[in-house]
Amino acid sequence: MEKDASLSNKADEFLQVFRKGEEFTKDLLKENEKLRFRIAQLGESLQRSGDETRTKLYEDRIRLMEDELHSLRERFRQVEEENKDFASKYIEVEEENNNLANLYVASYQLHSTLDFSEVLRIVLEIIINLIGAEKFAILLIDDKTNELIPVSTEGMAVSEAPRVKIGDGLIGTVAREGESFFADDMTGAGVTGINPLAPIVCIPLKIKEHVIGVLSIYKLLMQKERFNNVDYELFNLLAGHAATAIFSSRLYTQSERKLTTIQSFLDLLKEKPRK
Q: 27-38 burial string, b = 16+ CB within 10 Å, else e?
């Protein structure tokens, strides 16, 4: 009986050990399952972390490219403004070159003849085409009367142009001082009609410092707010060339008349008296 009880106790102990082993195995399986789940979570987390890193990297790259694009656009705008400025300056230079070329041709025409009336006609064409004057008068000094006498006009009759004593009024002052006058108000009285003989420009016609006349402009073909540097250069060069051509042709015409008179007188002296 005692032997049977001992075997029964050992069987119980074995069963208890087996049950504990079974429970331990179950616990291990549970822990293993937990570990697998945790590993899976860590894997997903790691994968999400990798996606976020790549996304952040892409966002940084996109932001950098946008900054570069903005910088390029700003640089393009600056270059475009510089190109516009260069184009404007190029147009100005082209206009100046054209004006100088036209003035060269005009000066050649002025000095190509010694006929006084022809020179005046050429001067009128130059003032109209190069300066763009619509209404103006050329006045020359009469040394006998000390007056400025109109000899040629445009947009008005010669009889309508004023005869001015040297030193009187604006035109007379320009003739006496030898300094050009440019009106501050470029609309001009000649345009508004308040005073049709109020000059907007007066240029002395000079040979060195000797004034022989005045170019008086009352109205322009195209309204300007102000003259630019090219206009001033044209006025100065034109005044010098026109003055020289007018003075030379006038002397030549006077000398031709005197020669004709002298020749006629000599011809009369050579004629044989009638019997």
A: eeeeeeeeeeee
Give per-10-residue mean pLDDT for the chain (275 aa).
56 63 67 69 62 70 80 82 81 76 77 86 86 90 91 91 90 92 67 59 90 92 70 79 86 70 62 56
In a domain, 96, yes or no: no
Give this prediction's pTM. Answer: 0.59
Question: How far is 106 from 261, CA to CA, in rounded Å?
Answer: 33
In whole angstroms, what is the distance from residue 207 CA to residue 239 CA?
A: 9
CATH of the domain at 217: 3.30.450.40
43 plus 5 within the same structural domain: yes
- 245 and 166 assigned to the same domain: yes
- The answer on 255 and 157 residing in a single domain is yes
The residue segments making up the domain with residue 257 are 111-262
57 and 128 together in one domain? no
Lookup: tokens for 45: 């987390």
CB 153 within 8 A of CB 134: no
Mark whether 137 and 225 lie in a shared domain.
Answer: yes
| 87 within a domain of the structure (yes/no) | no
Domain count across the chain: 2
Q: How far is CA 129 from the centre of its chain?
A: 22
